[in-house]
Each structure stands twice: as structure tokens, then as C-alpha cells.
Amino acid sequence: MTQSLVSTGQIDQPLEITFDRWQPGTWEDFTAIAEEAENDGRNNLHAYYQDGWMRFEMTPLGPEHARQNFVPLNTANLYASFRNLSLRCYINPSMRKRGEKESQPDLAFYIGRDLKDLPTGNAPIDLDAFDPPSLVVEVGASSFADDIGMKRLLYERIGVGEYWVVNVEARSVIGFAIADGGSRAIQTSQVLPGLELSIITEALQRLDREDDGQITRWLIHQFQGN
């Protein structure tokens, strides 16, 4: 889908923005478009930028994306509770290294951090002032190929500790551990030590036949036994 977005004074000419595609643009173009969308009330716009390339996505508003978002959030919270790990979750946060990079994952977690060292307020998380999150999660429908491709490279460069991608159609999760500017596929979380990612896939596959309470009780049973 292509749309002309005209900034209020920051962009001289309208930019043709094609959603769900990386396209060249300056940092000034990117921030002007993102701010215009926010001013217009388009709060479901996800914005990404790295090294002269920008991408905009409209977050799906249907129940499928929303339901599958629930599973990694619930799993991480429950597992951290049983393991007595400090955890703070941010839903749809913007993370910004000014002039260079920005991302807006579905979920971001800081794990094992002192609360006083974590970002607050409504501005994008300033990656020049705060460490990147321990874990970020993208729930990919039409964006799945990009989630495991270009976005994975972006999170490698941002320096998050771990990256999960939920494949909405397959009802499964792929995990990557990130270190030294690169990533590798994992079956067991490193930032939530001992958490088998197959548990998340199983929980996702229960969505059609169980309600949230049943899935939560099943997760609790998995974690109580370990």
C-alpha cells in the first residue's frame, strides 16, 4: 500500500511511502513522517530506521495478532515470576539512537535490571542514555520475512540481548541470541535462563481450543515442575 505523507514544514515535497517495505530516506524524513502520523492519531503505525533506510507498518488491528501477542508476554512474565527474576515489559515502545536507528517492536523486556536504571515517560527510549532491552519480540504476519531478515540485523546493531519472532500463520516462535554484532538461532532462552522456546510454540498452538485462563494454568504447570 502506497500513501503520500506530507510533513508540516519539515519535508518540502510529499513523500510516497510504501508500507511494509524498506525505502531510502534521511533521518529528518523519517522523524517528520513518524511525528505527523502520531499527530494525526495513527497510533498503530510502527516505524523503523537504520543507516539511511526507513520502514513503516500498520499494526494489524484484528484479533489474531492481538491474541498471539498475549502468549510471549504472559510466558515471560510467568517464567520470571517463578524464577524470581526482575522484569519490566514495554508494549509497542519506540527505541531510538538519534540520527542512526529506531525500532518499535511489539514487546520489549528489561530483565535483571534495577528499576531506577530503566526508562520512564512517554518519549522514545533513548539508546544513548539507556542500555537496549534484554529481549525484544516481533509478532509477524505479513512482516514475518522482514522480521527474521532486515529487522534482525537492526536488533543486532542496536545490541539487544535476545530476539524472538512469532510466526502468526505457523503459530510458532523463532529465537535468536545476539552478541558481538551477530545472532544465532536458539532453542532455549539465554536471558530467561532455561526457558524452552518450544513451550511458547505449544502455548500459541493452544489458542484455538483454549481460553487465556486455561493457557495460563498450563504455563504455570510447566514452570512449577522445573
How is this fold's topology laid out?
Layout: E1 2-5, E2 15-18, E3 23-24, H1 27-39, E4 45-50, E5 53-58, H2 63-82, E6 87-91, E7 95-97, E8 101-103, E9 107-111, E10 125-126, E11 135-140, H3 144-147, H4 150-158, E12 162-167, E13 172-179, E14 182-186, H5 197-205, H6 212-224
Parallel strand pairs: 7-10, 11-12
Antiparallel strand pairs: 1-2, 3-5, 4-5, 4-8, 6-9, 7-8, 9-11, 12-13, 13-14
Distance between the termini: 47 Å
The CATH superfamily label of the largest domain reads: tt1808, chain A
Order of helices and strands: EEEHEEHEEEEEEHHEEEHH
Number of helices: 6
Which range best describes the helical content: under 10%, 10-25%, 25-40%, 40-55%, 55-70% or over 70%?
A: 25-40%
Question: Spans with pLDDT under 50 lasting ≥5 residues?
Answer: 4-11
Average pLDDT metric: 89
The largest pleated sheet is described as: 6 strands, mixed
**Quaternary status of these chains?**
single chain
Strand order, main sheet: write it out: 3-5-4-8-7-10
Strand content: 25-35%
CATH-derived architecture of the largest domain:
Alpha-Beta Complex
Broad CATH class of the largest domain:
Alpha Beta
Please count the beta strands (DSSP E, at least 2 residues each).
14
Helix-strand makeup class: alpha+beta
CATH topology of the largest domain: tt1808, chain A
Shape: globular
Question: How many domain units?
Answer: 2
Computed over alpha carbons, the radius of gyration is 18 Å
